[in-house]
Each structure stands twice: as C-alpha cells, then as structure tokens.
C-alpha cells in the first residue's frame, strides 16, 4: 500500500513525504487535502520513475496543485467545472485538460477530457535594435546570456545547462546539448560574444548557473531578475515593446531572421534542433520583411569587413575600393 494512501485514512494532520525535487515542497496539510496533494505527490514520483524530466513534471504538478486548492481534484466533474469557469486562455485550458487526463489515467478514474481548441498566435518579433538596447542595459551575466540566445536561437534551458567544456574559444564554437528531445547543435560565435563569456567568473563547471542550486529554481530566479532589469530599461527608453522580449523571443527572432535570410526551412529546422518540420514551418509565414529594410555599411579594410560580418552584415558588392555590406533592420 502506498504511503500517501495509508496516510489519507487518518483523521489528523499529517506530513506527506516530499517527492522528487519540486519548487513547492510538500508540507503539512489537513487530512481533507491528502486526497489532492498526496495523490499529486505520488503521481509526481510515478512520472519521475517513468523517466519524465523535471522540466515536464514541475509545470504539471503546479497545474494540478492549483486545481486541488480550489476544488476536489479527485472528482473529475468538479475539476472540469472549475476549468470551465477559470479565467484562462483556451490554449491554457487545453494544456491543463491534458494534465488532468494524464493524472486520471494514472489513478484509473474515468475522465472525458473537455474540448478546448488551442488558439494559434504568432510570436512577437522585436527589432534588432530593441534587442541590442536591452542587452546593453542589463548586467554582464544577463547580457552574455541574451547575446548567446540571439546568436544561436537555443532554448533558455539549453543555454542554462552549458558547461565551459562546451565552449571552444580557439574555434569560436559552442556545442548545445539538446533539450526536449531535440538535436544537438554546434554554433559559430562572434568575437564579441566570446569576450562577453570570458569575462564571466569560471567558478563552476557551468557557464551561467551554480550547480549547488536546483536547476529549474535557479533559472526561474534568473528569469525574474531579468524581468526587473527589462522593466527599468523599457521605462528609461520609453519603449513598451521591450517588455515583450523574453528569453524565448530571441529564439523566435533568430529563426525568423534565418529563414528570411536563406529561405531554407530545413536550415532553420537544423538550427533550432527540431525533429519535426511542422514545428519549424511557422517561421515561413511569420513576418513579411520588405527587401528595402536594410542597414548599409562600408568597409575598406579586411578588419572592417570582419567586424561587419561578425555583427551580422552580409556582403553585397564592391564599389571602387569599397565593399558594401547590409543587414536587415
């Protein structure tokens, strides 16, 4: 008999043993709540033993706990009624419905998942100048993190897991360890980004995170700190669009720019590490960038040309002794 099932029959306050690391530790709950929180803890342990990653388990547990605080989670009809009146988007309700379905399947409780349709929305794509202004205004660690996301389009979790051994400063490359079942990738980095990374302390084996602190919790704290910096920059520049730039936004920006530069959806698919091209096709229809929206620069020396290329400019033609380069705004 499972520990949480034994405890649920007691008529007093009890302590539930904590499951695999969660951001909200299980504490003391009245016996009336054991049927919710205790079952969630057992379900979390079941998922962990089944090989699910913590990044998958944690948001699922959060959603189930939120429902258990407001209604009887073990009653599917009450859970569905709560979901119907909850102030969530249709997409969010669909996701929570999937979490409930997985939980009830584990419990062996019949459940007919409510029908909610995910509403497809296009991601926000900022101007490169807005991204650069944001990077220039944050601290050096956050700036290096953002510049890395901008140049590689990797996921925030992939960047957070990078180790110093993944960085090759001699060839200016970095190897991305895959997340969410995607593919491993290797990227060429600019000299600017290499310099930004080398200025960070080499205290731990990881470039950005402290391994003594829980991985996801530390990333959430880092993200909240970034949000505070972002708000101050948006207010100082009087540009509310900057408030819409998140870590994931830079992945969308990179994919969009790469598609409009190459018109090669397979190239973008490889860059993002996607295994299913359906996840990549959104970038083929995302933004209509006009051909005349360019910044133009000239170079007379090899050093000038190298600096422009490293900044994202592409060579166009020669005019006399001058080389012309351009980059989309």
Number of individual domains: 3
| Annotated CATH topology of the largest domain | hpI Integrase, Chain A
State the strand order across the main sheet: 3-4-5
* Run of helices and strands: HEEHHHHHHHEEEHHHHEHEE
CATH superfamily placement of the largest domain: Intergrase catalytic core
Q: Could you name the CATH class of the largest domain?
A: Mainly Alpha
Global mean pLDDT: 83
How much strand? 5-15%
Q: Structural class per helix/strand content?
A: mainly alpha
So, CATH architecture of the largest domain? Answer: Orthogonal Bundle
User: Using only CA atoms, what is the Rg?
Assistant: 24 Å
N-C termini distance: 63 Å
Low-confidence stretches: 1-35
Specify the overall morphology: elongated
Instruction: State the helical fraction.
Output: 40-55%
Number of helices: 13
The main β sheet shows up as:
3 strands, antiparallel
DSSP summary, beta strand count = 8
